[in-house]
Q: What sequence folds into this?
């Protein structure tokens, strides 16, 4: 491979490379066509429809009776107290969950990337919460969080700590959901980190060892820089996933108590499906979309620095 | 960029062609042969019974009508309703669809179900509450095979030990205060026993089980014409009723996070629960139980909740006559008996009730008496989903100690916004 | 302390950490499995720590699901495996090709497309559910298998994921192959794919997991018993009354097992990824 590489560099020049480049462009469009066509039909098109609906009074059960109402839905949205509560809750969840979940995931990935016998067992253990259905897992956790009889309070009592209200308290409900969400999803990010760690050449670690670096120094100076592109990716997708929080509050708290766990997607679902108000729900979706894009851009800026 | 545009246009074209094809496909269904009818029903206890009934129907109408029933899971909360909504957006509803009582107004108003006045045989034989439930804007839209109610279940031994005698006739039904005193007496915090158990499920349950307390006190959820909730759902009588219920949670007579089997496991002395619970209780041999009537407000009348799933005819059906034949077939006296028996619910036909002997004796006679004498429908309004959901969330907060008036004010505001939108 | 003992202590530490954390992660699921093995009447009698002591173990919850009269669990399982398998298979091909094109075969507008794709990942599924239903209905796919598969083959998440990893592969490897006369498709197949096995495995696993637990969409588009997926199939357990929690826990356990098996299968590509990786040189 080494030899052909050297030979090749001198061979590529002028005309032949130009045709090759032109051919590449052409092939690039072809290669990406299937995915782009599918995305357009099943995602872009629905998004455009949702955008149009956001300017309508549209009862889901009566599609023929929908009428254009201009900015009415948006006006209503910005006067809706629940919307600002939901926005605040969503941001709170995201700000806490993203750093916590990503750190846990990275820690788990580093652990199971070590050459120890239990590594593959660990991978299965950490990943199994991800594979279970969120709806049922959420029901399961309401039992675990039960005030009188739940396992968590039982354990706390055993350690000499008083029972906590968890899901029944406006102050603790969201934090309880955060804890549960990290448990459920950290394995997802762990897998991505793991794929990244696999690409870090062992030689780098060996070199660092020769320089006398300890484990933490190796982590800081070898691991982190080597998986930078993966970390950025994980942060962005975790942020987006965090913004989409819905099933946990839907099943565990119904957005309560006192709207303390009501999120934007919860509100979007509630208005769209339960209240069949497609127009208002679409307006929430549009604003949601803009908020997340904005946050992602900020995140990207911050990451670059 | 030009390429992308061409691509996009090609795709739009492709969709157009494909959609044209699919339209052809659906149109070609109207050939010769039997009329094909489709039915949707939530999956559950009645699944097997319905399958058998439809099979018989197809046999009897061989060559003329062929019905196909599909069972759809209700999932956790509203999966079935979401499915109906999606189908309504693109005219893919079945000929006959099952719907929960409170949805009648909503579906009728949106025009996805049509009136069935004059199409139902022996209409007078249905219990009045079923007809009330199926009526919107003075027209009958739905009928169903079964009814439901909420009553007070009690642990026989615990009440005996406390020297409390539960009422046995409707006339003697406990008043609010008698019920409260009993609950207080039965609560034993040291043993971890609660006076009453009531589920705090987030779906339709909350308005269903607290409704009678409000109505019994002379309160309402919405004005008579269904146009306004301000002053009704947050009116003084409604507030009073909820303050009464809040007393139970404030004083710890009710567990705010009960296990699903708290009463069955002997950790609660009484239970405000749906009529269906008695079948589950039979699995718990150690707990001896009885049923008594829903408590009433001191000055008010005796009421109980009602409502169940019923059948509505979709507006998009092309075979109104055959669909009516099928509906009548489902609702014959014998089939109502069959469906009521497999689901362990009170029957919705008076003649069917007479055949179900065990409903004439204690404890089930309590449920029967409530269905026949004290049943009260839930509010009939197109904005019911908003009212029910917001009210449920408000009551959840009230039980956790929230301010009754403030919480109900929010319900009124949100519901009235929705009513205005639908006009 | 010698270098070797230091390493050994490190290994023991890692082992202990994995086991302790592993237990914490798995314990809620253990609760679920033990509950699924109890008779319904005992599940909530001891919900707390005492729940971990198995009592009156029974497989009746499992047999009730597997041999239920009204549902065909195995058939639903097959439908799920088939539809999700299709998404994974076609999805991996289509998305990786697209990502490769966006990274290495740039064409006019490709950078813009990438931004759009990342933005599309933001869209919550709940907000496009109804419009998507309308589109799929136009194709005439309601109650047909394509409705469960085709809309999810292309995935913004996967394209983004592949792109991120393809960027890390040294260009020299490709250039060498090009000079040997390989076409871009050959380069992709012979250089990119073998060098990114861990990413392909990750994409496959994550796609599988995401769609395995899908519930809302299959429910809405696949009413027919013949194409019902397992997540929809087991929902009959949530009836309006008398919810059988033991059976729900059993069903959840049963639906989790295939995913764990698939996970174990793909996991070996992680190990392979190290040994055959050309990146290491």
A:
């Amino acid at each position: 491979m080494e030899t052909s590489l050297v030979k090749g560099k001198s061979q590529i020049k002028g005309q032949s490379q130009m045709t090759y480049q032109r051919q590449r462009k052409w092939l690039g469009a072809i290669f990406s066509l299937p995915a782009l066509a599918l995305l357009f039909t099943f995602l872009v098109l629905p998004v455009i429809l949702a955008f149009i609906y956001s300017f309508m009074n549209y009862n889901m059960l009566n599609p023929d009776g929908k009428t254009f109402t201009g900015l009415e839905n948006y006006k209503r949205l910005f006067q809706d107290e629940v919307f600002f509560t939901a926005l605040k809750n969503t941001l709170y969840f995201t700000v806490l969950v993203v750093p916590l979940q990503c750190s846990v995931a990275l820690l788990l990935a580093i652990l199971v990337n070590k050459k120890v016998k239990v590594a593959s067992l660990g991978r299965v253990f950490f990943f199994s919460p991800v594979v279970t259905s969120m709806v049922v897992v959420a029901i399961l956790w309401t039992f675990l969080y039960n005030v009188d009889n739940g396992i968590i309070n039982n354990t706390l009592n055993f350690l000499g700590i008083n029972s906590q209200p968890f899901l029944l308290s406006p102050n603790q409900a969201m934090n309880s959901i955060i804890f549960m969400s990290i448990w459920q999803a950290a394995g997802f990010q762990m897998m991505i980190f793991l794929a990244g760690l696999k690409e870090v050449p062992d030689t780098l670690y060996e070199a660092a060892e020769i320089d006398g670096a300890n484990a933490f120094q190796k982590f800081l100076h070898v691991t982190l820089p080597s998986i930078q592109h993966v970390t950025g990716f994980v942060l962005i997708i975790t942020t987006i996933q965090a913004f989409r929080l819905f099933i946990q509050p839907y099943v565990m708290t119904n957005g309560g108590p006192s709207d303390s766990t009501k999120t934007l997607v919860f509100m979007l679902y509630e208005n769209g499906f339960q209240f069949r108000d497609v127009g208002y729900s679409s307006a929430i979706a549009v604003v949601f979309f803009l908020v997340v894009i904005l946050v992602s851009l900020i995140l990207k800026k911050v990451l670059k620095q | 960029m030009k390429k992308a545009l061409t691509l996009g246009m090609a795709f739009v074209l492709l969709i157009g062609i494909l959609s044209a094809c699919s339209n052809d496909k659906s149109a070609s269904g109207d050939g010769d042969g039997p009329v094909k009818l489709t039915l949707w029903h939530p999956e559950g206890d009645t699944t097997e019974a319905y399958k058998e009934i439809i099979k018989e129907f197809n046999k009897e109408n061989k060559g003329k009508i062929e019905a196909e029933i599909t069972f759809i899971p209700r999932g956790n909360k509203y999966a079935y309703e979401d499915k109906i909504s999606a189908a309504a957006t693109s005219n893919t509803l079945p000929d006959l669809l099952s719907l929960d009582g409170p949805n009648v107004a909503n579906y009728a108003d949106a025009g996805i179900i049509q009136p069935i006045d004059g199409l139902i045989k022996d209409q007078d034989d249905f219990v009045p509450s079923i007809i009330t439930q199926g009526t919107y804007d003075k027209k009958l839209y739905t009928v169903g095979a079964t009814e439901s109610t909420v009553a007070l279940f009690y642990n026989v031994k615990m009440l005996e030990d406390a020297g409390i005698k539960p009422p046995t006739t409707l006339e003697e039904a406990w008043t609010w205060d008698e019920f409260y005193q009993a609950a207080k007496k039965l609560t034993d915090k040291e043993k971890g026993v609660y006076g009453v158990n009531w589920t705090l499920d987030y779906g339709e349950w909350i308005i269903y089980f607290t409704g009678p307390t409000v109505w019994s006190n002379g309160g309402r959820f919405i004005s008579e014409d269904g146009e306004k909730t301000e002053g009704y759902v947050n009116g003084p009588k409604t507030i009073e009723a909820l303050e009464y219920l809040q007393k139970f949670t404030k004083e710890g007579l009710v567990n705010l996070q009960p296990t699903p089997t708290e009463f069955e496991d002997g950790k609660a002395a009484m239970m405000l629960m749906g009529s269906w619970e008695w079948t589950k209780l039979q699995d718990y041999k150690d707990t001896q139980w009885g049923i008594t009537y829903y408590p009433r407000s001191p000055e008010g009348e005796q009421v109980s909740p009602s409502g169940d799933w019923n059948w509505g005819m979709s507006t998009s059906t092309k075979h109104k006559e055959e669909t009516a034949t099928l509906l009548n077939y489902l609702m014959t006296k014998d089939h109502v008996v069959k469906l009521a028996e497999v689901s362990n619910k009170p029957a919705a036909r008076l003649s069917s009730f007479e055949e179900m002997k065990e409903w004439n004796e204690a404890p089930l006679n309590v449920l029967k008496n409530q269905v026949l004498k004290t049943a009260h429908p839930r509010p009939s309004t197109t904005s019911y989903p908003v009212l029910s959901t917001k009210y449920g969330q408000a009551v959840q907060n009230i039980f956790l100690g929230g301010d009754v008036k403030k919480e109900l004010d929010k319900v009124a505001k949100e519901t009235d916004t929705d009513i205005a939108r639908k006009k | 302390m010698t270098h070797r003992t230091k390493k050994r202590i490190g290994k023991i530490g890692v082992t202990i950490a994995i086991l302790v954390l592993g237990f914490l992660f798995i314990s809620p699921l253990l609760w679920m499995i033990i509950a699924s093995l109890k008779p319904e009447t005992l599940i909530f009698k001891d919900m707390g720590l005492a729940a971990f002591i198995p009592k009156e173990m029974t497989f009746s919850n499992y047999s009730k699901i597997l041999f239920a009269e009204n549902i065909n669990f195995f058939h639903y399982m097959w439908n799920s495996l088939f539809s999700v398998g299709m998404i994974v298979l076609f999805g991996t091909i289509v998305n990786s090709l697209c990502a490769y094109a966006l990274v290495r075969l740039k064409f006019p507008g490709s950078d813009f497309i990438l931004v759009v794709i990342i933005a599309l990942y933001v869209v919550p599924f709940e907000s496009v559910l109804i419009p998507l239903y309308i589109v799929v209905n136009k194709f005439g796919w309601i109650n047909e298998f394509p409705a469960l598969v085709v809309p999810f083959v292309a995935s913004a998440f996967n394209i983004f994921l592949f792109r991120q990893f393809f960027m890390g592969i040294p260009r020299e490897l490709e250039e060498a192959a090009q000079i040997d006369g390989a076409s871009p498709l050959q380069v992709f197949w012979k250089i990119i794919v073998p060098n990114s096995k861990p990413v392909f495995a990750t994409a496959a696993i994550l796609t599988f997991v995401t769609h395995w637990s899908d519930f809302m969409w299959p429910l809405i588009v696949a009413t027919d018993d013949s194409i019902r997926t397992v997540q929809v199939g087991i929902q009959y357990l949530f009836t309006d009354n008398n919810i059988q929690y033991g059976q729900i826990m059993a069903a959840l356990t049963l639906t989790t097992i295939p995913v764990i098996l698939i996970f174990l299968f793909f996991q070996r590509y992680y190990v392979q990824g190290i040994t055959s990786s050309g990146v290491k040189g």
